[in-house]
Amino acid sequence: MIHRLKALIASIRESSDPQAAAAQTARLARAATGPLIVLAVLGAVAYALYSNPPMRTVGQAEAGVRENRLTGEITQWRDGSVLVVPFVHEMRIYSLRDRTYRPEKLQKAAGPAPLQSLEGLSIGVDLSIRYALDPVRLREVSGKLPADIDAEVVEPAVSGIIYKVFARYTVREIFSSKRGEIQQAVEKELRARLALDGIALRDLLMGKVDLPADYRRGMDQLLAEELASEKMRYTLVLKEKRVQEVALDGEAEKTRREKAAEASAREQIVAAKAQEEAMKHVLPFKQRQVEQRQLEAEAEKQARIRGAEGNASARKIEANGEAEARQKLADAEVYRLDKVGRVNAEQMTREGMAITAHPLLIQKTLADKLSDKISVIIAPPPADGGFIGSTLLGGMQAQRVAQETSGAAGASP
């Protein structure tokens, strides 16, 4: 703190002295000159970097050519960033995309710079030229390529070639007959000329040809006459071809019918031979078929006879069996009736003997049979002391019962 106060007091004393103040100012100016120079240099460098950035970008479909000003070395770059040192390198970027050039001054016959034909007539042609820089030769020709390639390279080359080529042909040849030949000649010469400057010609298209008005009218009339003449010539040729076609068709029809007749006759001959050859094999086959049918008929006859005999034997055996069965059934029925009769007779004998021994059994039996229908039967006893039910059954039944009773009584001794 004390040192600072001392320095301040000393500076005040010096400022009060004019000579000391001037010396102090000179001393401060000399001390500030160095930093100012450094700041000036840094500012100049910063401005140079700003105006000429050290990194340049090469986009798609572009090519960059960097030239070293110290060594003269030229390098080519594609798609990326390139280091460009200010005042050391010079960088130029070219587009590799296709470009189109259409000379508008040549499109009209009454334009500012029309083409001249062999007859000296002015004509206009619509040309479209598509070109691009050749990336293979770009490093070689980059030093002599101008900024405006269309105006300083392509346009002079096109004008120098197209005027020379079109001057070799007449208007009629340019308009109709040798249009393709002219286009090929221009394309060939222009391709070679542009290749010297590192430019690749992609395509050349020659469109509408603009003729002078008077010449166009005359050309239209001439073309109409030529077309009519050409049409008549083609009509005559066509009719002649039709006559030849009719003659050839008649000849072809004649030949076809002859061939068809010959083929039909051959087919009939072949068919007859085939039928004759087939009959040689068919007749024995038919004979064998007849014999086979006879044998089959004889076999069928024998089979039917054997079948009839078998059926007859079977029917006979069935009839005998049926007769024997019926006989046995009849014998069985007779035996059954005999046995039943005997059993009935014996039963009746036993019943008669029981009734004779016990006459009241009749009344009991009658009462048993009528017990479910009649609760009490009141009947007078018979006068003869006979069956009590004779009065109920009637006289005929009483008589029948008396007869059976008498018969049973007579049979019992």
Structure notes:
With 413 residues, this protein is α+β, with helices and mostly antiparallel strands. Among the domains are: 2-51, no CATH class; 55-95; 99-211, Band 7 domain (Tetrahydropterin Synthase, Chain A); 358-413, no CATH class. It is built from ten helices and seven strands. The strands form two sheets. Strands 4, 5, 6 and 7 form a four-stranded antiparallel beta sheet that branches. Helix 4 crosses helix 6 and helix 7 crosses helix 10 (395-411).
CATH superfamily of the domain at 99-211: Band 7 domain
Order of helices and strands: HHEEEEEEHHHHEHHHH
Structural class based on helices, strands and sheet pairing: alpha+beta
Tally of helical runs: 10
- Looking at the overall shape, the CATH architecture of the domain at 99-211 is 2-Layer Sandwich
How far is it from the N-terminal to the C-terminal residue, by CA? 196 Å
- Which stretches are low in confidence, meaning pLDDT under 50 for 5 or more residues running? 408-413
Overall 3D geometry? elongated
- The percentage helix is 55-70%
CATH topology of the domain at 99-211: Tetrahydropterin Synthase, Chain A
In terms of DSSP E residues, the strand content is 5-15%
User: In this structure, how is the largest beta sheet organized?
Assistant: 4 strands, antiparallel
- What's the CATH class label of the domain at 99-211? Alpha Beta
Q: What is the C-alpha radius of gyration, as a whole number of Å?
A: 76 Å
Mean pLDDT: 76
Strand runs, count: 7
